[in-house]
Design brief:
Layout lengths: L1 H10 L5 H14 L4 H8 L3 H14 L18 H13 L11 H8 L3 H11 L17 H13 L5 E17 L18 E14 L5 E6 L4 H14 L5 E6 L8 H8 L4 E5 L10 H13 L7 H17 L10 H15 L5
Helix pairs in contact: 1-2, 2-4, 3-4
Length: about 350
């Protein structure tokens, strides 16, 4: 039993290297190898080999571990650490600042900046950061959530699920100075000022099954343009398939003209996401992709050039498209929402 444990220590790649080395010393000694020979083979001193052999004789396996080494005693006790955490989490600086910094909380508590930094990292405190959130006020939030997530996780047969939305106010911005190319040791440089040459609205429908996108740019963002885009979708989708369309609550999507057009076509089914829940619409992920890769860092001398860049990006995207995999269930989203509400229920809001 003892030998097998030592062999396991000697072969291990996850244990500290020193512990594995000491196990090899003991195993070699058990085979009758002399201390001098072991020291030469493992590139150690005779004293080191003798030390670990003696430690093993006295305490067996426990003797191979390092002893706890004495160090400088702590200068910050638990009460001061607790006060540091309480100050950071539950108070604001007296100068009117919205949050603590390392230096300000160090001055307030009398703890050094280095120690504050270390305790912030240890307890995961990041007072300099914040994240945005928005709770939906839709009275039918749960019903709409389960409806949309159900389409993602279990789409109906003989039907196509499309995520449809518009990215309005896509600006054709021309940089006033040439961009500085990226080089070794420095990033691409883009001037902050620009000339505006107009805007366009990008209408897009994302196929949940394969990630392909049907997109078109229109000069305005009204129910007429939205209805025209629905007609394009209707022509592109085979007539034998039903169309389940996921949209947000923008007024053009529920305009009387749009409703009348949908009512006359039985294969169309609109599914509205809850208010303030654009994260439920997968086409928003495509909008983030095209903004990051084709629009934000571009320079366009006209709206026409911007539209050409968008069309070019969509064409290449569809040639190698992959679907966005939706894995979250409605229950897991509701549980996360419950945790969020529990965290903010004690605030002054």
């Amino acid at each position: 039993m003892l030998e097998s444990q030592l062999q396991s220590f000697a072969r291990s790649r996850s244990l500290p290297a020193g512990l594995s080395e000491r196990a090899r010393i003991i195993l070699s000694s058990a085979d009758g190898e002399l201390n001098k020979s072991i020291a030469q083979r493992l590139k150690l001193t005779n004293a080191t080999v003798g030390k670990w052999r003696m430690r093993f004789i006295e305490r067996r396996i426990a003797g191979l571990y390092d002893d706890v080494r004495p160090g400088k005693p702590r200068t910050i006790d638990d009460e001061r650490i607790a006060q540091l955490i309480k100050t950071t989490l539950h108070t604001k600086p007296a100068d009117g600042s919205t949050h603590w910094s390392v230096r300000s909380v160090a001055s307030e508590t009398g703890i050094s900046k280095t120690s504050v930094q270390r305790y912030f990292q240890l307890f995961g405190l990041q007072p300099h950061r914040s994240e945005g959130f928005k709770l939906s006020t839709d009275p039918f939030f749960i019903e709409k959530l389960r409806d949309v997530v159900g389409l993602y996780l279990s789409p109906p047969e003989n039907a196509l699920v499309l995520c449809v939305d518009e990215k309005s106010q896509c600006q054709a911005l021309e940089r006033t100075q040439p961009m500085l190319p990226m080089g070794l040791g420095y990033v691409e440089g883009v001037t902050h000022d620009y000339k505006r040459h107009g805007t366009t609205t990008l209408f897009a429908a994302l196929n949940v099954l394969n990630g392909a996108v049907l997109a078109t740019c229109k000069p305005r963002h009204r129910h007429q343009e939205f209805l025209g885009f629905l007609r394009e979708i209707d022509k592109a989708v085979p007539p034998e398939l039903d169309i389940h369309c996921i949209v947000d609550n923008y007024a053009t999507h529920s305009h009387p003209t749009t409703k009348a057009w949908l009512a006359s076509r039985s294969r169309w089914h609109l599914h509205f996401i809850p208010t303030y829940s654009s994260w439920l619409n997968q086409v928003e992920r495509f909008f983030a992709l095209i903004t990051d890769k084709a629009i934000r860092r571009g320079s366009f001398t006209s709206v026409k050039q911007l539209v050409q860049r968008i069309d070019h990006f969509v064409t290449h995207h569809n040639a190698n498209c992959q679907p966005f995999r939706w894995t979250a269930t409605a229950d897991s989203i509701l549980e996360k929402l419950h945790r969020l509400c529990s965290r903010i229920s004690g605030t002054a809001h």
